[in-house]
Amino acid sequence: MKTWSIAPAPTSPPLYIATSVAVALGPGFYEEEHDSQHRCHWMSQQASLLFAPASGPCYLEFHVFSEFHDLSQRLIAIDSAGGKLFDGPLVRGWCPLSLPIPEGVDRLDLRVNKAFPREYYPDDRRLLAIRVCAPRLHADPVRQAAIAAQHANAVANTEEMLAGRTELGSTPPSLGIDLHGVCNVKPPCVYCEWDYSKDQEGANVDVPFTLDTLREMGPFFDHSANLVNCSIGEPFMMKNFDDLLDAFGNAGKVLEMTTNGQILTERNIQKLLGRPIDLYISLDAATPLTYSRLRNDTFEKILANLRRLISAKAGRSGLPRVHLVFMPMKCNVHELDAFVQLCADLDVDRMVLRPLNYSDSITLDWQRAGYRFTYKDELLPFETLVRVSGRAARRCRELGVELADQMDFGGSMRDLFQEEFAEGAQSPSAPEIQRPHTTPPGEGLTATQPAGSAPAPPVAEAEFAPVLSTTGGPLPSLGGEHRPACLEPWKSLYILRRGVLPCCYGGSPIADMKDYRQAWNSSTMQAIRAELLQGRFHDYCLRSPACPIVRKSEEAATMPLRQRLLMRARHVWWRFNRDTNNLPNRFVYFPFQWTASRLYRAVTDPRYSAQHARRVWRKITGA
Q1: How many Å apart are CA 549 and CA 247, to the nearest integer?
Q2: Alpha-carbon distance 372 to 375, whole Å?
């Protein structure tokens, strides 16, 4: 068999691409298929990867998907010379592996200790164990070290969570970052509290995100596998965006980022092609009229941009993965069916159903394109949101569109609200708007993030597609039944200009942006983890009721009675604030919290006063 030698390209391609050699799938792998994220192959409990032997050091990299939550599924890799190259547990979901391959070896035999239980795919005659995708042989030792560190950290993190640890030696496998703080949509989207958000960022509002930022983060960046951009701004406006994308890709990171799509130019499309990026396009409308009521008159331009991008990446499952976002509101919920049809016509990788953020102090009120958008009136009651989820699930299934429903963040929605979900799924059209009679939809929610712009939580790993067993008996355990209701405080940390958040739906920051290292194992983080391990929500969670897990638990009355009573008391307070034009908050919290903290910043940091003055001037002049 022909050997290959290391001959890196002299210019732009990184070493792992310049030295990349094809890997063939041997016996034990089934035909290629698509899951929600990848073109992949199921393998049985034994299979082989075949390649030409190298004349020097090289590394075999591939991604593995395990269905088990408890590290009980193990993978063993043995080379053609009989050497054991890997023997370790697999974490739940997609995880990269990279193994050093000795010189002269031309095959890797993979063995899995146990199969995915057949009860989960009763109509499939195959024996399935794990999914594998993107095998690649290369000669980049830096890339090898990065991938190996990510996997070791992911395993250690899962072990600590399973052991009930609240103080962690691992770093977050998913890292929230804040790339850019400037946006090209002016005036801002009608649901974005732009001025409030910039004020929250305070002295950090102009802090740049550069390659030096990544180096300073050390293991927090090095050991993370997923990056979630949560910036209040448009990333394509960054001057150093190309360099950052290269750094993310070369280190084996998967980047999740949101864009409005209005400057998705040909040059920007070329930046994205082939990269492991989950690109969220904030559209929220199926017609130019509705889009103009939310933003401006660029709807057709965005669709043209999307068609060019999807064509250039060769359709669904090519890179980057394109996710089209729909936030159901009073002004657009009637377009739900049309939006699903648009996703099917464009051949996007996923439709994302994202609930509009809630706030206890929201005052946004716009007149745009002949429509008055009053934020508090646009929020849909919980029962309607569940019906929307049911309707979206049905229409996506009928049209072959993958659905990521962020209302179901943390799972259990269909089980807790079977009647409402079924009503939505069986309805002949999109759910009608029904305003609540008792509990106003906008009550009890925080305003530390721009309205409607919650950071996208990490994409939930899709469950296996075949229909589950209906024999009547319980399905075999996959090790997930004893996990906390929310894994975010173990798996994620969000380092943002407005502060450090323990989860993607967090309310107020727990630390300043620069103090993220201390925040990771701070007393607040450990207390949040401890409460979740006991089946309760920490008070921080209860003060962040934009979180779908908290809201579902409250609506279904599954949280402890004391916490339900506390939430009811807060609802009374929030309702009183709303009905009195927020006077109690302004006269109680405003003087002691808001004014004191801003005055302290103004005295101790002259940059803060200058930045605030510039923002006021821009608001007055429209510059």
Answers
A1: 34
A2: 9
Bridge partners of 365, per DSSP, are 374
Q: Contact at 8 Å (CB) between 39 and 32?
A: yes
SS3 369: coil
The CA distance from 181 to 518, in Å, is 24
Please give the C-alpha separations between residue 608 and each of 107, 204, 320, 448, 509, in angstroms, as whole numbers.
60, 9, 38, 18, 18
- pTM for the full predicted model: 0.85
Beta bridge partners of 372: 367
Show the 3-state SS of 234-296.
CHHHCCCHHHHHHHHHHCCCEEEEEECCCCCCHHHHHHHCCCCEEEEEECCCCCHHHHHHHCC
Contact by Cβ (8 Å): 354, 326: yes
- 620: how many CB neighbours lie within 10 A of its CB? 8
CA dihedral sign, ordered 82, 88, 89, 95: negative
- Written as one letter, the residue type at 584 is P
Element (H, E) at 493: strand 492-496
Residue identified by tokens 């399905």 is 475
Q: Where are the alpha helices (DSSP H) in 104-205?
A: 141-162, 194-201
Interval 514-568: pLDDT, tens: 999 999 999 999 999 999 999 889 999 988 878 888 888 888 888 888 887 887 7
- Residue 320: is the preceding peptide bond cis (ω within 30°)? yes
At 87, which helix (H) or strand (E)?
Answer: strand 84-89
Question: For 75-133, what is each residue's pLDDT tens digit?
Answer: 999 999 999 999 999 999 999 999 999 999 999 999 999 999 999 999 999 999 999 99
Positive/negative CA dihedral, 581, 585, 591, 594: negative
C-alpha span between 214 and 231 (Å, rounded) = 16
Average pLDDT over residues 417-444: 66
Rounded CA-CA distance 609/35 in Å is: 51
Question: CA-CA distance, 123 to 515, in Å (whole number)?
Answer: 52
Q: pLDDT by residue (tens digit) across 287-296?
A: 999 999 999 9
